[in-house]
């Protein structure tokens, strides 16, 4: 079984596309859910499936607090944090073994 690790993440529909901020204790399972549109909702309606940024935390309370903060940020701040580590908006999920999105 995979060890759970609290994580805040940003998904995008594409380069400079629609953004989604989320929190999870299992990033790979959550990315799978978004890609397969298992939970429906905002990400499924807007085609938001590309993992463009994530940040690991020691505990879920800290991760949730960080997610709430990031959700309040202006869009440009989110773009800045993505581009700081991922300037080409690559789908980071590919590095975890996911198939590239078409």
UniProtKB/TrEMBL annotation:
Residues 4-81 form the GIY-YIG domain. It holds the Pfam family GIY-YIG. Gene3D superfamilies: GIY-YIG endonuclease. InterPro entries: GIY-YIG_endonuc (IPR000305), GIY-YIG_endonuc_sf (IPR035901), UPF0213_domain (IPR050190). Belongs to the UPF0213 family. This is GIY-YIG nuclease family protein.
